[in-house]
Hints:
Layout: E1 4-9, E2 12-17, H1 28-41, E3 49-54, E4 59-61, H2 85-95, E5 100-104, E6 107-109, H3 111-118, E7 121-125, E8 129-131, H4 145-149, H5 154-163, E9 167-168, H6 169-175, E10 180-182, H7 187-199, H8 203-216, H9 221-236, H10 239-250
Parallel strand pairs: 2-3, 3-5, 4-6, 5-7, 6-8, 7-10
Antiparallel strand pairs: 1-2, 8-9
Helix pairs in contact: 1-2, 8-9
Amino acid sequence: MDPVLVDRRDAALWITINRPERRNAINEAVIRAIAGGVVQAQTMPEVRAIVLTGAGDKAFCAGGDLNPNAEGVPFTVDPADPRNYVIDLFKIIEDCTLPIIARVNGHALAGGLGLLCACDLAVAVDTATFGTPESKIGLFPMMILPYMMRTLSRRRLMELCITGDPLTAAEALEAGLVNKIVPAAELDGAIEAYLGRIVARSPSAIRLGKMGFHAMQDMGLRQAFEYAQLMLPMMARTEDAREGMRAFGEKRQPVWTGR
C-alpha cells in the first residue's frame, strides 16, 4: 500500500497520507512523497491548488512515527550532513506558489500540527484535537516551531509546547490554527467551496501574492515597504491584471490566463 496517495481532482492535486492504521504518522518515505506531490502540482498548468489530508476519519496526522533505534532514540543524524527531510519539505512548501489547503479530517498532533501550520488554509472537523505532546516524552517540537511561531500567538504557543495539552477544534479556531471547523459530513463541501473561490481568482495574483507574503514576513517594516512598492507595479503589468481591469470596466467575469 502506498504511504501517500497523489491524485488530481479537477483543478486540485490531492495529497493523502495513507497510513490510517498508524494514525497517518509520518516517516521519511511519507515526507518525501508529500514533497514530490507539491513539486509535481506546480508542473501541472491545470492545477490551481493543493489539498493535503489524511486517510480515514481518525487522524489528519499524529506526528512522527517514533521507532527507537539501538540507542533508544527515534532520530539518526549524520554529523557530516545534518539536514533533515522534514526541513527539506518545509522549504519546498515555503517556495510553493500554489495555495495549499489542509483538510484536517481528524487529530493533528506533533509533526502533524506542523504540517497544518505550513499550509495556507485549514478546514477541520469539529471533533479534531490539536497539540504538541512532545514534552511528555522528553522532547520539544523543534523542527515545526518556525511555522508554529508564524501561526500562533507567543503565549498560546508556549502553553502548547510546555504543557503538551491539546486544543479542541473550537479552541484551535479561536487561536487561528484553522480557518473553519465543520461537522465531518460537511468537510468535503467546505474544501470544495474554498477551491471554487480559488479557481475564480487570478492565478498570477495568487502566485505573486504568495511570493510577496513569504518574502515580507521576515523583513523589517521599511524593507517590506520598499519591496511592496516595487512588486505592485510589476503585478499590474501581468496579463491577468490587465484582463481583470477590462472585465471590471465591462461588468463581466474575467478570463484568467495565469500570465
